[in-house]
Amino acid sequence: QVQLVESGGGLVDAGGSLRLSCAAYRRTFSFSTYAMGWFRQAPGKEREFVAAISGSGGSTSLADSVKGRFTISRDNAKNTVVLQMNSLNPEDTALYYCAAKRGWGPTEYDFWGQGTQVTVSS
């Protein structure tokens, strides 16, 4: 079991920035073998993909709605993944989840965090 803990959420004005972090924990763990993703879910809406990064960090994927504004990165030495969010708008308001899965490809994510709330005021 991989435990994922998100942090960095909060309230920000439109146009502002937030940096979300996700720390991964497991007793014996090779973090670099896991692809990491960020997802979000707004009230009354389905969960949607935001960004993903491969185990090595060499490949990334971003939802069209956040391209040019969000970046994803990881530090395998610290077992962390970061979602840098710039130029936030009220439509970005949601509960943001970190997720992990083996490998890189169109497979389901195996582990999920509890989420961190992001609220963008207009």
Number of DSSP helical runs = 0
Shape: globular
Oligomeric state, counting identical vs distinct chains: single chain
Low-confidence stretches: none
Number of strands: 11
The major β-sheet equals:
7 strands, mixed
Strand content: over 45%
Order of helices and strands: EEEEEEEEEEE
Question: Helix/strand/pairing class, anyone?
Answer: mainly beta
**What is the rounded Rg?**
14 Å
**How many angstroms separate the termini?**
39 Å
Mean pLDDT score, rounded? 95
Helix share of residues? under 10%
Protein topology:
Elements (H helix, E strand, L loop, with lengths): L2 E5 L2 E4 L4 E8 L8 E8 L6 E6 L6 E3 L7 E6 L4 E6 L8 E9 L8 E2 L3 E6 L1
Parallel strand pairs: 2-11
Antiparallel strand pairs: 1-3, 3-8, 4-5, 4-9, 5-6, 7-8, 9-10, 9-11
